[in-house]
Every structure is written in structure tokens, then in C-alpha cells.
Amino acid sequence: MTVKQLRAFLAVARTLNFVEAGVLVHLSQPALSLAIKKLEEGLGGALLTRTTRTVSLTPEGHKLYELGQRLLAEWDNAEEELQQRFSLQRGKVALAAMPSFAGTLLPHGLLTYRARYSNIRVEVHDVIAERVVEMVREGRIEMGITFDPGPSNELTFRPLFDDSFIGVLPPGHPLSSFDDITWSQLLQYDFIALQRPSGIRLMMENQLALQGLVPRVILDAHQLVTVGRMVATGLGVGAVPSLCRQQMEELGSRCVTLCEPSISRSVGVLTRSRYQLSAAASELRNILIETFDQSSDTMTSD
Asked: With a threshold of 0.70, does the pTM exceed it?
């Protein structure tokens, strides 16, 4: 049974007249008769009783008329909703983003998106970088903002900008009077880090190992905000992506530029390779690229 056949049958059932029904569905009488015949053949029996003067419904025809009106209404509603979604007049898009990005830069992109598509609801999951990757891979959300997870056949990573590590110091620390320091200077002090297997920690330790540097980790935590609170309390020093600068300073820590070596990691949009984005998600991705692309001025500040 096709939608065209159902529309033809409902028109005949409503009018009990092939001429009037043909006008309603824009079909000639032969085309209308053929559509009804095909429908009956497909369903396996007569829906209409025809004489030279009258048309009436069989018991099965009455049932299809009852069911068909609901089916066609649902079809029309679905068609209208999808048209609105494709034209971005309605819909929802879900994305995951690292808290350091979700709480600082993401609102800038969302402001542009909402100005253009105010009827699209945006659902933001602010979760750690590793969880962003998991949620995209599992298909729980369409796209994520995270650090480059490395080569993958399942995932596509589109870089937006590079984010460098900064030093985080307690108030009044001996190094807090400097605007920039070396890693060697920072690592003279007790160090607070993210727990393994954090990708941020592993990347930092691997880069430092190339320089023969090893942090003296005395405390580690699951969340960067906890690292920041520990540092602000005076338990030690730390190093975090510069995206976290505002958050660290709000917690009471002092942030300084780190050099020798300069350690950075790419931040970008993560999607599933074999799945096409919805119209709403695709446009949000475009706006994020437009807002934070590396070709524009760097969005983070040291």
C-alpha cells in the first residue's frame, strides 16, 4: 500500500463518487480506478462495492477508512516535521564538550547559532575529554568538542585551534611574580595532576619525558576543577590547558605561560565517520568552525 493509493481510496470513501474523488486527488478517473485496483490487489480483497450508479464501502473498506485517516494524518505530520527539520525551523541537536570549552568558548558559538536558528533546541553535555570521545563513538550524541583523540577509522576530527599548557600556582607562590616560566622551574615543586589514564596527563608526561623531565606528583584528581582547588589551597602546583585559565583564576590560582618546552594539543570537532549529521548538527558544526577556526584569531589567551 502506497501513500498515493491510500489518498485515492480515502477520497473515494469520503465522496463515494469517482469523479469528485479524482478532482480532490488530482487524478483522472482511469488513474484513480487503477490506484484503487492496485490497492485492493495488494491487500487481498475488495474495499469498494461498485454498481453503475452507486459506490459503497465493504466492511474491510470501512475499517481501512477508519485506519487510513489516522495513518494519513500521522504521515502528513511526519512529512511536515521533517520538512521543518531540514529547513531548520524545528529540531534538536545534542553535543558533548569538555567543561573547559563548554564554560568558556562554546557560548560564543551558540550565540551565533541561536541568532540564526532560534527554534532549534541545543542539548550540551559537559563531560571530560575522554567521555566526549566515548559518547560520539557510541552514537549518544552527534558531535563533540574535545582534544584530538588520534587516528581512528570510526571518528573524524576537524581541528579548530591549538591549546597550550599553562602553569597553575597557589597565591603568593615564589614563581607567581613571573608572567612566563619554564617547565623545569615549575617541576621543582610538588605537582598535582589529573588521574591516569587521562589523555591530558599522558600527553603531558610523554612530552616532558622527551626533555628528561618528570613531575613529582603528590596528588591527582579526576577533574581539572579539583586540581585547581588543590593548587589554590597551596597543596602544590599544576599545569592545565589554557582553556582552563578563567576557571583556575576564579578558584584563586595564579596562571602563567609555560615554555621550554611548549606543549600544546589540538582542540576540534569530533563526529562519526560513517554517519551523516542532521541538518541542525551540520549547521552547528559549520558555525563552530567559522567561529573558532585556526585561520581566525586565537580564541584563547595566555
From this structure: no
Q: 10 Å Cβ neighbour count for 83?
A: 11
| pLDDT given at position 167 | 97
String of DSSP letters for 83-137? HHHHTTSSEEEEEEE-HHHHTTTHHHHHHHHHHH-TTEEEEEEE--HHHHHHHHH
For 219, the grid coordinates are 596528588
**CA 255/CA 171 separation, integer angstroms:** 10
Ordered by where they begin, the domains of the chain are 3-86 (1.10.10.10), 91-160+266-292 (3.40.190.10), 164-265 (3.40.190.10)
**Residue 222 — very low, low, confident or very high, per pLDDT cuts 50/70/90?**
confident
Which segments within 184-301 are labelled E, that is strand?
191-194, 217-221, 238-241, 254-259, 264-272
**What separation in angstroms does the CA of 126 have from each of 36, 103, 224, 289?**
55, 8, 13, 19
User: Which among 128, 140, 144, 124 is positioned nearest to 227, based on CA atoms?
Assistant: 128
Residues 251-283 have pLDDT tens digits of: 999 999 999 898 998 999 999 999 988 888 999
Candidates 268, 235, 275, 264; CA nearest to 252 is 235
The x, y and z cell numbers of residue 162, run together, are: 591549538
3-state secondary structure of 181: strand
15-24, Cβ contacts within 8 angstroms, sequence gap of 24 or more: 16/54, 16/55, 16/56, 16/57, 17/55, 18/55
Judge whether 94 and 127 are in contact, CB under 8 Å: no
CA-to-CA dists, residue 299 to 25, 80, 127, 288, angstroms: 57, 39, 21, 12
Pairing verdict, β 264-272 and 55-57: unpaired
85/91 Cα distance (integer angstroms): 6
Whole-Å CA distances, 32 to 6, 18, 43, 72, 73: 11, 7, 17, 18, 21
pLDDT tens digits, one per residue of 107-138: 999 999 999 998 888 999 998 888 999 999 99
